[in-house]
Amino acid sequence: MFLLINQYLVDQDKLEEVHPAHGAWFAEQCKHGPVVMAGRQVPSVGGVVMIDVATRAEAEAFAAGDPYTGAGVASYTVIEFNLARCFPDKLPEITGS
User: What is the pTM of this model?
Assistant: First the structure.
């Protein structure tokens, strides 16, 4: 399991130029890819994504595939961890995802 921390490298206006491509890519990753959960950081300086892949190389390829990364408007930190406990009943209900 991997936790990916995304950090924006540019101002919001520049980010918005790439957002449609990022949004389409990320929707596909959520529907058919390895995304387990995700959300924006508060304040909005980047995002946090948990993905279920077998290797660091796969996690790094996921990060590299983000149009934000390709456009140089964001970067990722990749953290591998062993999932030891999970409490799904403590997760808030998500609406409008």
Answer: 0.89
